[in-house]
Amino acid sequence: MDMLELRGIDKVYQSRGKPPVHAVRALDMAVEKGEIVALLGSSGCGKTSTLRMIAGFEDVSAGSIALGGRRIHELPPARRKVAMAFEGYSLYPPLTVRENIAFALKSAQLSRSEVTRRVDEIARLVEIEDILDSYPRAISGGQQQRVSLARALVRDADLYLLDEPMGQLEPQLRAVLRGRIKSLLAERGMTAIFVTHDQTEASALADRIAVMEGGVLQQFASEKELKSKPANLFVASFIGEPPMNLLDASVARSDGGFRLSVGTDMHFDISGAGLDSEATKALAGTPQVRIGIRPQKIAVGTGAVRVKVVSNQWLGDQSHVAGDCNGRMLIAVTPGRVAARPGDIVPFALEPRHLHIFGSNETCIRHAEVS
Amino acid sequence: MEHSSLAGRIFRGIALTLILIFFMFPIVWIFMMSFQNNDQILRIPPRILFEPTLANYEALISGQLRTAAGSLQMPFMRNLFNSVVLSSAAVLLALLLGVPAAYAFARFKFRLGETIAFTLLSFRFAPPLLVLLPLSLYYQELGLSDTYFGIVWVYQLIALPLILWIVRGYFEDISPDIEHAYRLAGHSWREAFTRIAVPLAGPGIAAAGLLSFIFCWNNFVFALILASADKQPVTVGALAFVTASGIQYGQIAAAIVLSVTPTLLLALYAQRYLVEGLSLGAVKG
Q1: Distance from B30 to chain A by nearest Cα, in Å?
Q2: φ, ψ for residue B268 (rounded to 5)?
Q3: How many CB atoms lie within 10 A of CB A204?
Q4: pLDDT tens-digit series, residues B153-194
């Protein structure tokens, strides 16, 4: 069953004397019960606006929001049954950390011992037991963020909204907390949406990732699908580290398929048998496409493409080799060390089956084969 | 501070003493005058040592002003009482109206919002004499002249803009997300205002309230025109000290001491909030 359903959500910010800002456009999204969803995108892509509309601090300009079968977009925030951790922490300055967390439980009308038990439990989880009696102004930003997170997670809500929940934490602690929060959410079947611009965090914590750009939902899928079947050029270039290599190619018919040529020195033969009818039609109708290949799919040391090495970095478990191929930059990632210095000529192998092909409207015509 | 040298500490002490003398001298002088009679005050050269007398206070409290020309009725204690009633009522009313209004101006953008806020502020620009003539005519027509309510109402011109604009700044400094968090926890908008926003802006509200109390207390011209003898505050009542047989310096001094006392006590009590409030307003974050 869908826990949360967003239908045709639009958000337009009007301010006098300025052109209206269309922050979110026609957003449709359904989140299942117990699912953890990441809203991923760069700054100003509409992800925080979406979160605030679900919480009720922003009106929806158009569309509807349903949570657990209730239409909530017209309810005041207090009656939506959502919990939220704010990016700016928003702790109550006159209350101690313990009171801040317990405060969120006040309306639940629990016994005092039950409140203490739950606060202690969540404090242990995010490692703030030793600052429970401090005041917000006396603790660091990272600690405040964890208090804010604890204050949201301690509640019983239908939906948990987390705005950049771990942005201020040190990397080691972040990794530990990610694991703990994920198991807490899974164990209790809590439904959560969190906003982040960190791909690693999105992949580690979320079941599905919604990639947003320019107020438009680009793709909503699992991390694996985003990587193997990006819906469009934006998702393809945004997801993955280092980013996908993208090249312009011209399309020509060849016997039984198509030949994609990058400049005059790189050719890829795509057999017609591997293409569905729509892809065939799309390729036949366009003279120019963009092709993309993941750096991990480029083999170094073999192949027909000769590149001049620009940089060769050993990261401890993999090598990043950047090379110049007649003015086009290609990056390859291989598991072993590569004995090449800048200026050396090294062969790269780019196989046609690993190519993603994007049409003129930036949507994907063909995905790479999943190996 | 602990690292400063002995010379530095001595210099600081001298500087503080000088400043203290400079600012305290008029007050101390008036305090001394209030225990002297007119002859002692006008003696040349003046003397620091004198025989104190409580006659001035006696005269004020009993309401009998004794001058060379005879005795004069002077309801000073009544005036003092009027001042307390008028100023307190005006500030309370201005807080009741101004704090929610300041919150609205700080949190919500609405049509003509800035215009309304600025119009309220502009009441402070207009010279009071300009509005007094039409106001007194209206007041007579409405039956408001010479009533406590009428004067409290006109004092809103003094207190309301001050409270509105000072408190608004404090509300703007509070992150709206703190209230959002509170509302998400199942509380209404009204509870977020009374339990979160108002306590957090508390120092600012206290400072604005105290300042507007002082301004109301010191007002002269509104009460002069709109109030008759039994509603007059001390500022207007003090005119009676200028008598046909001369000016009663000793009684004026005693009256000043008495009329400064309530505001001074209030300010001393609220000093902590006042300093905190004014400095918080200046430094954001």
Answers
A1: 43
A2: -65, -40
A3: 15
A4: 999 988 999 999 999 998 998 888 888 888 888 888 888 898
Most B CBs within 10 Å, among A58, A86, A158, A159, to test the B interface: A86
Task: Determine the Cα–Cα distance for residues A226 and A208; give it in Å rounded to an integer.
Answer: 9
All structural domains of chain B with their residue ranges: 6-73, 76-271
pTM: 0.78
CATH architecture of structural domain B76-271? Orthogonal Bundle (1.10)
Q: Which residues contact B144 (CB under 8 A, 6 or more apart)?
A: B138, B150, B153
**Residues of chain A found within 8 Å of residue B188, distances taken between Cβ atoms:** 76, 78
* CA dist., res. B227 & res. A40, Å (int): 68
For residues B52 and B118, give the distance between their C-alpha atoms in angstroms, rounded to a whole number. Answer: 52
B283: contact with A, CB 8 A cutoff: no
Check if the interface score ipTM surpasses 0.90: no
Q: In this structure, what token pair is assigned to residue A185?
A: 């959410």
Q: Which residues does chain B have within 8 Å of residue A110's beta carbon, measured at their own beta carbons?
A: none
Q: Which residues contact A74 (CB under 8 A, 6 or more apart)?
A: none
* Cα–Cα distance, B231 to B147 (Å, whole number): 7
Neighbours of B46 (CB within 10 A): 13
Cβ-Cβ contacts under 8 Å, A151 against chain B: 181
Is the CB of residue A196 less than 8 Å from the CB of residue A51? no
Query: Cβ(A298)–Cβ(A330) under 8 Å?
Result: yes
Beta pairing, strands A159-163 & A82-85: parallel
Find the CB nearest A107 among B109, B185, B189. Answer: B185
User: Does A141 contact B at CB distance below 8 Å?
Assistant: no
State how far residue B284 is from chain A, nearest Cα, in angstroms.
Answer: 14
CB distance B188–A78 less than 8 Å?
Answer: yes
How many angstroms separate the CA atoms of B87 and A120, rounded?
Answer: 50
Q: pLDDT of B223-276, one tens digit each?
A: 888 887 788 888 888 887 777 667 778 888 888 898 888 888 888 887 777 666
Nearest to A150 by CA among A123, A172, A173: A123
Nearest Cα to A298, choosing from A226, A247, A249, A233?
A247
Which of A56, A77, A90 lies nearest to residue B175, judging by beta carbons?
A90
Residue A54 touches chain B, beta carbons under 8 Å: no
Ramachandran bin of A192, using left for φ above 0, alpha for ψ from -120 to 50, beta for the remaining angles: beta
C-alpha to C-alpha distance for A198 and A204, rounded to whole angstroms: 10
Please name the residue that has the structure tokens 């509409």: A46
* Chain A contact probe: residue of B182, B184, B191 with most A CBs at under 10 A: B184
Taking the Cβ of residue A321 and every Cβ of chain B, the question of whether any pair is shorter than 8 Å is answered with no
